[in-house]
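Hi U.,

Before I forget, here's the chain from the pilot set. I'm dumping it here mostly so it's searchable later in email.
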Amino acid sequence: MFGLVPLETLLAFASAGVLLNLTPGADVMFATASGMAGGPRAGIAAGLGVGLGGFWHVGLAALGVAAILATHPAAMTGLRWFGAGYLLFLAYGAWNAGPAKPAKGSAGLARAFWRGFVTNAFNPKVALFVLAFLPQFTDPARGPVWQQILILGAVFTLTGSCITAGYGALAGWAGTALSARMGVMNKLAAGVFGLMALRMIRE
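Structure:
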């Protein structure tokens, strides 16, 4: 691996990636909302789903599909509206969930994981970010660029998944402590989802 991506480059990339992931963005907002609505395990599952969605974009970048999407505004617009619509669907569900207890069991965790994946996989801004950020740390002289992108992308999504899942867990523990007010927590989660949808539409 160090032949394609030298250790010093990998460390520099990982440090930059950690700093970026620590800055709250749409992925952190989603995991936080999921944790507030479903508890710490749901927040962690949502964070891991977001991470898998990020690696989906890494794979697209390695294949060059993301570059194709970036040159076709109609395709980008379609993805953005689909993602916004999905977030609004989640907001509606959270708003009408009522004062339920945190979700438990494999079905609830699988749902949180899947929602995290879909939300991130259909966010074209993530595709553009991956396409712009990862190639800066590649060098054709070291070998195939697509392999370097996969290695860097794996590091970025691994650290990002851990950080995002951590945010989701913290929000979930706060939500569990306020379990008597889960109705309010669901309303807050719905508000976060709605704001994310509006942000995606406007940008």
